[in-house]
Structure formats: structure tokens, C-alpha cells
């Protein structure tokens, strides 16, 4: 699975300055969060990456993907699971961050939704040092390729369901996911020849990306 982040993070070991700033603003050891997510979801992974990178403590709760989808609206797909994202914010949408001091939108909300807003909140609260994206056009063009749904959907939509994560523990999780994408007109899989070709292209883009991301422009 490809996960793209809007920000690139400076690692402690690469910058004495950042290392100094981080140790001066230690992560508040008393703050602990519950992070509600799907393990396969790029939006959730963006938040998890931030928390893992900076050593922010959290307990992860992973939901079945079909739980909370309403069968009456989904041609019979979906179910009301024990863990149901609707109980967090009223919406079937994750990630959601829960914890003391986490802002909520409505009085009944259990936590905060929207991955970028969660990241902004964490960056502000823990005074994290996160450099902005460079905006380099050569990186941007690779990014656009990697985000092109026409190319990526047939590579990933069916493969995602084979990742051994709790998201797909119930067969109804997979059938909801496939139904949802079929309904949108997404292509779920390539033919085996197309698949091999797409993997070849993707691998060469990833090699190019790795090489380019090592180039430091001043
Ligand atoms: N803008 C939201 C998007 C979150 C989102 O779309 N999450 C997907 C999972 S990757 C979701 O909850 N989908 C529920 C569904 O379609 O049933 C964010 O950045 O957090």
C-alpha cells in the first residue's frame, strides 16, 4: 500500500537543531489518546505516522470496515458491529482521535475527526517541528502519478482486502468495500497482464521517488 503524507518530517538524528528543539519541548508524558481507525486507511496512517514518529502515546482501536454502514442505504451491505464509528461523531468515518483536551465539534462527539485537523492539533499541542512540503515540481509529478486513482485503484482496491488487519475480519467488511467502489464505477482489479505492467511502472516510479527525495536542493 502507498501512503503519502502532506508533510515531510525531519528526523532527530539528521538535525542537531531539531534534536535540541525536541528535547527542549518534551512530549507531555501524561497525555494519552485513543485512536480510532482502520488499519488500511491512508488518512489514519497519516496521523499514526505523526504520533509514532514523535513518540506520542496512544491506544489504537481498529474497526471493521463494514461496521456502521447502513444496509438500508447500501443495498444490504454493512452491519451494526460492536465497534461502530457512528458512535464517535455520528458519521461512518475514521480516523477519530479521542482524549482529554481533544477538541470536539458537537457536544455528543467522543473525539475529533479529519486527519489533517488531528495532525494540526497534535503539532500545536505538542509543539512538534514539522517542516512543510518542499513543493518541488519533480516530486509533485511523482506524487500526482501515485495519487492517480485510475492507475492505483485497480492495483490496490482488491489487494487492500487481503492485508491481514482487523478492518477485514468480517466477510461483510470486504463485501461493503467492494460494493462501495463498484458503485462509484471504480475498477477493482486489472487483468493479470495489465497488473504486471502496472506493478513494473509503479516500481520504477518508486525508485525514481527514492532517488529524487535524497537530492537536497538549496
Ligand atoms: N477527510 C477525512 C477522510 C477520512 C476517510 O475518508 N476515511 C475513510 C477510510 S480511508 C472512511 O472512513 N470511509 C468510510 C466509508 O467510506 O465507509 C480525513 O482526512 O480524515
Automatic annotation (TrEMBL):
UniProt-listed PROSITE patterns: GST_NTER
Signal peptide boundaries: none
Domain GST N-terminal: 31-130
Superkingdom of source: Eukaryota
Membrane-spanning ranges: none
Protein name (record): GST N-terminal domain-containing protein
Provenance organism: Skeletonema marinoi
Amino acid at each position: 500500500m502507498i501512503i503519502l503524507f502532506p508533510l515531510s518530517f525531519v528526523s532527530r538524528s539528521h538535525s542537531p537543531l531539531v534534536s535540541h528543539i525536541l528535547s527542549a519541548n518534551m512530549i507531555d508524558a501524561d497525555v494519552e489518546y485513543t485512536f480510532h481507525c482502520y488499519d488500511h486507511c491512508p488518512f489514519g496512517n497519516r496521523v499514526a505516522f505523526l504520533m509514532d514518529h514523535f513518540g506520542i502515546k496512544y491506544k489504537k482501536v481498529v474497526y471493521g470496515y463494514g461496521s456502521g454502514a447502513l444496509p438500508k442505504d447500501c443495498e444490504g451491505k454493512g452491519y451494526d458491529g460492536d465497534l461502530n464509528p457512528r458512535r464517535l461523531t455520528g458519521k461512518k468515518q475514521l480516523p477519530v482521535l479521542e482524549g482529554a483536551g481533544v477538541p470536539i465539534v458537537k457536544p455528543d462527539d467522543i473525539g475529533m475527526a479529519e486527519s489533517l485537523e488531528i495532525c494540526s492539533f497534535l503539532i500545536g499541542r505538542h509543539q512538534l517541528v514539522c517542516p512543510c512540503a518542499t513543493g518541488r515540481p519533480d516530486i509533485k509529478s511523482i506524487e500526482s502519478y501515485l495519487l492517480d486513482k485510475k492507475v492505483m485503484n485497480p492495483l490496490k482496491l482488491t489487494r487492500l482486502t487481503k492485508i491481514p488487519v482487523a478492518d477485514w475480519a468480517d466477510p461483510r467488511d470486504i463485501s461493503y468495500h467492494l460494493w462501495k467502489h463498484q458503485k462509484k464505477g471504480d475498477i477493482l482489479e486489472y487483468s493479470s497482464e495489465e497488473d504486471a505492467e502496472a506493478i513494473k511502472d509503479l516500481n520504477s516510479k518508486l525508485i525514481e521517488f527514492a532517488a529524487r527525495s535524497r537530492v537536497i536542493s538549496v
